[in-house]
Amino acid sequence: MKKLFSVILFFIFCSGFSQINSNDQVVYLDSLKRIGTLDNYQYLRVVKEYHLKKDRYDVAVYYKSGKIQMRATTTNKDILKLEGSAIYFFENGNRKKIVNYINNKPIGKEFEWYENGKIKSEIENLQGDQVGSEITKIIQYWDENNIQHVVDGEGEYTEKEENYSAISKGSVKNNLKEGVWIGNSSRYKINFTEKFINGRLISGKSIDSLGNEINYDKIIVEPIPKKGMQHFYNHISKSFRIPNYINNTVHGTLYFTFTIKKNGEIGDISVLNKDEFGLSEIAIKIIKNYKEWSIGYFRGIPIDQSFYLPITLK
Predict the structure, then answer these.
(1) What is the pLDDT of residues 254-302, one digit of tens each?
(2) Which residues contact 260 (CB under 8 A, 6 or more apart)?
(3) Helix or strand holding residue 279 (H, E)
């Protein structure tokens, strides 16, 4: 019986700390942690004992240099769903962040450091009573010169959002964002002003590079199928058929990445593990033919956003 997919690499990283074994899975990631290739990868993700059936899997991400970037556990070995404590590192080996996850969401105390090893912040992530209502308590914060600006939940805080190249500053009262916060995103070329009451965003306004003003009440709006994710999954399931002549000879998982463009179109569809039977090309056409998507937004600005889709063959 042929196995469709097996990306197992045997090598020792240049730092010489570990060897990948036959039960592990290694995946190339690009600079944005999307599925990449040997030509463009900046990180490697390793899921330990991938081919065993387990409730949780140890997962690690390494810089291209071989230095550790993250260690955690996941309840899903294909699309990471972090559970428990995760620790992140700078490439020089110093700790960057310690976060606790429940069902892939940061919950509880979170500590962060600067690259020189000095403490940066202590915050606490609280679960809200509904999706999107999570609250972050800001407890302590120091700048890069080790000057403390938030003391026991009171002061001025600087927040960085690495995924969006954004930085914002504002007041903290009773551990929560309060009043007017001002920031910018170099990636999307916007300046923004936001108003918070008791840690909750009340209103926001972005100004783009052309001077256009956009009002919003959510910082992130993810693109979703207009008829729901389940409708999209059903479309894949109903449309994808393995030809009878190979139906009992292949098994495994195809891994796809694609982007929902800011104009609502699907683009940049690629497959990590192209198969010899043409099944990946069939799946790409099926994904591309699904048109009904609502676009994503960052602070009111339409943005491209990537998706990761495994298709398991049975």
Answers:
(1) 888 899 999 888 988 888 777 778 888 989 999 998 988 999 999 999 9
(2) 223, 266, 293, 295, 296, 304, 305, 307
(3) helix 279-288
Tell me if the domain spanning 224-313 has CATH number 3.30.160. Answer: no
Q: Return the top range by mean pLDDT from 36-45, 104-113, 258-267.
A: 104-113
Q: Where are the domains of the chain?
A: 107-217, 224-313
Q: pLDDT digit string (tens) for 56-76?
A: 999 999 999 999 999 999 998
Would you say 243 and 227 are in contact if contact means Cβ atoms under 8 Å apart? no
Nearest to 180 by CA among 201, 200, 166, 194: 194
Which 8-state DSSP code applies to residue 250? -
- Looking at residue 312, its amino acid is T
For CA atoms 147, 151, 157, 159, the dihedral sign is positive
Phi and psi dihedrals of 274, rounded to 5? -65, 130
Report pTM. 0.81
Which of 165, 231, 175 lies closest to 31 in space, CA to CA? 165
In whole angstroms, give the CA distance from residue 159 to residue 54: 37
Amino acid identity of 61? V
